[in-house]
Amino acid sequence: MERKRGQRILIYHEGECDPAKCTALKLARLGKAIIVRRVANIPSNFLILNPLSQNALSLADKGVFETRGLIAVDCSWNKLSGIFRNIKGVHRALPYLIATNPVNYGAPTKLSTAEAIGAALYILGFKEEARDVLNCFKWGPHFLTLNHELLEAYLSAKNSVEVVRIQKEFIGAACQE
Question: Minimal CA–CA distance to 72: which of 109, 118, 107?
């Protein structure tokens, strides 16, 4: 059975942000994702974007996304560890990327929910879907442009270990400049 577009991307949303600026809510309004408001309603075995995970997202995770789906979490950083303890699935952290959203422009790793989803889709090999998500925002295409070299490198990595190696090399080179 083929899933309808947007149904394989879920966003657990705590409702703590300004709805007018929330990228998660906009993606849901546009049919790109489904909002889930209770942890109990999150399906198990999905690919979960978890910044606390010890494993980086890589192309090796593509099968989990294709068969189950992707979950992003939109909540306060103070609540992250408690929330992720209650979500069963394949937890993966996004590698180093730079935000272009208006709230955190230029900040490494401080991505909006839309940037996180777009980056995940790109790393999993779904470049057009990543563009589709990020094109919903004026600043979205710039995220792909600014992070293009890194996203392409992460996409070429076979597994989490290679993604982490690429990330370390990039950060090391950036620190030497």
Answer: 118
